[in-house]
Structure formats: structure tokens, C-alpha cells
């Protein structure tokens, strides 16, 4: 891992930092962090693995988990499970599919999932539930929301406003659009380090179980299915390439983070703020490609 971190630090090809959320443009393009936690709870880390960054769409894995816990398979009436083949913020398929997003990991899908979590609660309570879930999984109460990032996206998130209004017009959202978006923008703005993120992902690597307590967070069946959706949809229109190169379920965010799951083996988090054309961390993916190759961790074989 130190060798991988060293290579990533030296590489000139770093991708471009997201600027459409102005606050994210301040990220350090030179940063690189990597953390791996195995089934026995051993942590291996390299680079800036303790620096909190904006996890953005990676929270979509955890909001999906919560929404399935709350309403079960009824969730699939308002969001699909097919790869979109389109950018994360695309609106085109929404019209063809009557406001039902293709999957829970594109923005429209995650907004619909957030709406399901919000129903029956005040926005503040729903957000508290999401944040406490992350703190519980990571066993770390210091995880917080970066209010500046949330405010920055709220000011400039016109595309998400359009997606939400479009879904609302088809009756896919139950709550006032600004409430749902308020919760969505805030959970995207959670800040976590690679170590905290790898901790939070452990239940997906171990059939729904927290390996340190032995307690089930979700059923093995649900964990397996969430991993399947991460594999097929976790990197938007770059999901096929991520499976081809890395071969693990993964979820990216425009903050430059990726959570990847080696089922039965490890929870992995990587961070490098520069993105490729599909909005996924350029060096993050490359580092995971190096790691899975050396460890023989691809789910498709060595
Ligand atoms: N909050 C971001 C958005 O809605 C999340 C996108 C992402 O990380 N891909 O645009």
C-alpha cells in the first residue's frame, strides 16, 4: 500500500477536481489516501488516510441501506436497479420511465431514496438518523456534516432541483421538494476520512455483519444485493470500466472518494480529489486496480 501511495503521489495525471459545487473546488489535488480493514479488524493505511473529505455520493450506499430497512422491497416501486449508462446527474431517462430513476446511485435515484427516509420525519430528524447510522457503523461519533459544502451545493444545485421537481410531477416524491433536497444536500456533505469510510463499509464485506461485534446490521441477502448494485451502478457510466479494471463492488463520490468491498475479505476506502470524465476519482480507481491485482481480490478471479 505504501508503494501504491508513493506511485499515486508522483503521477502527473491527476484528473480534475469537481468545481460545479464551488466548495469542492478547494480540495487539494495532490491529496491521496488509502485504508483497508480486514475481517479481523486490522487496519492498513497509506497516505492521507486520516484527512476528512467530502464523501458526496458514497453516502448513497448508506441511505439505500437505511431506506431498505425502513420500507423494504417497496422501495423498488420508486427506484429501479439497472445501470443507467448515463452521467450521474442526467435527466433524460426520467421522462422515458415516468419519473422513476434507473437506480439508487444516480442523483435522481438517491433523491428518491432520501425522500423515502424523510417520510414521517422532520428533515432534521431524517438527517440525524443518516449521520448517526454512519457514526454507528464507523464506531466514531466525531463524523460530521461540512455545512459549507452543504450550503454551497444548496446554492448551486439547480440540476438536482430540476430532477426532484421532475420526479415530484410524476408523484415519485412524497415530501416537499425543498425538504427532500435539503436532506440530500446535507448527507452528501458528510465529511469522513478513508479510515472512517472503510470502517463504515465493513458490514458489506462481511455478509451484513459488523465483524468487531459480530452483530448483524442487515441480513446477508440484503448485503449481497447492495454489493450487486454497487458493482453494476456504483460508478455511473463508468461502472463497466470499474468492474473491468478493479473487479469489486464500489461506490464513488465527486469528492474523489471510493468505497470498495472485497466480499468476505476487506472494506477499502481510497481518496484522490481529481476526477475522470465520468466524475469518478482518477487515481482512486488506479490505486484500487493496483491493490486488487496484487492481492488477487477481484471477484472475477486472479
Ligand atoms: N452531491 C452531488 C450531486 O448531487 C453528488 C454527486 C456525486 O458524488 N456523484 O451532484
TrEMBL record:
Gene3D superfamilies: DD-peptidase/beta-lactamase superfamily. It catalyses: L-glutamine + H2O = L-glutamate + NH4(+). InterPro entries: Beta-lactam/transpept-like (IPR012338), Glutaminase (IPR015868). Pfam families: Glutaminase. GO terms for molecular function: glutaminase activity. Substrate binds at residues 57, 107, 153, 160, 184, 236, 254. Its EC number is 3.5.1.2. Signal peptide: none annotated. Keywords: Acetylation, Hydrolase. One of its GO terms (biological process) is L-glutamine catabolic process. Belongs to the glutaminase family. Homotetramer. NCBIfam families: Gln_ase, PRK00971.1-2. This is Glutaminase. It comes from Methylobacterium gnaphalii. The lineage of its organism: Bacteria, Pseudomonadati, Pseudomonadota, Alphaproteobacteria, Hyphomicrobiales.
Amino acid at each position: 500500500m505504501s508503494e501504491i501511495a508513493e506511485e499515486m503521489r508522483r503521477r502527473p495525471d491527476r484528473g480534475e477536481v469537481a468545481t460545479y459545487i464551488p466548495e469542492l473546488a478547494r480540495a487539494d489535488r495532490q491529496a491521496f489516501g488509502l485504508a483497508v480493514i480486514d475481517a479481523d479488524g486490522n487496519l492498513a493505511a497509506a497516505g492521507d488516510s486520516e484527512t476528512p473529505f467530502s464523501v458526496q455520493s458514497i453516502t448513497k450506499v448508506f441511505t439505500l441501506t437505511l431506506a431498505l430497512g425502513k420500507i423494504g422491497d417497496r422501495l423498488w416501486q420508486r427506484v429501479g436497479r439497472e445501470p443507467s449508462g448515463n452521467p450521474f446527474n442526467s435527466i433524460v431517462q426520467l421522462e422515458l420511465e415516468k419519473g422513476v430513476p434507473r437506480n439508487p446511485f444516480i442523483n435522481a435515484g438517491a433523491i428518491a431514496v432520501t425522500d423515502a427516509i424523510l417520510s414521517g420525519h422532520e428533515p432534521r430528524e431524517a438527517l440525524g438518523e443518516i449521520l448517526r447510522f454512519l457514526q454507528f457503523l464507523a464506531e466514531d461519533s466525531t463524523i460530521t456534516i461540512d455545512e459549507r459544502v452543504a450550503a454551497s451545493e444548496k446554492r448551486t444545485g439547480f440540476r438536482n432541483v430540476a430532477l426532484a421537481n421532475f420526479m415530484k410531477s410524476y408523484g415519485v416524491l412524497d415530501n416537499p421538494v425543498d425538504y427532500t433536497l435539503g436532506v440530500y444536500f446535507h448527507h452528501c456533505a458528510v465529511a469522513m476520512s478513508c479510515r472512517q469510510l472503510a470502517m463504515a463499509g465493513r458490514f458489506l464485506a462481511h455478509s451484513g455483519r459488523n465483524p468487531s461485534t459480530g452483530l448483524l446490521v442487515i441480513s446477508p441477502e440484503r448485503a449481497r444485493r447492495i454489493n450487486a448494485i454497487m458493482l453494476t451502478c456504483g460508478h455511473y457510466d463508468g461502472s463497466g470500466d470499474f468492474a473491468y479494471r478493479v473487479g469489486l463492488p464500489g461506490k464513488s463520490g465527486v469528492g474523489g472518494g471510493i468505497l470498495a468491498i472485497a466480499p468476505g475479505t476487506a472494506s477499502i476506502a481510497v481518496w484522490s480529489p481529481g476526477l475522470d470524465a465520468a466524475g469518478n476519482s482518477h487515481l482512486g480507481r488506479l490505486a484500487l486496480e493496483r491493490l486488487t491485482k496484487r492481492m488477487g481480490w477481484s471477484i472475477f478471479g486472479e
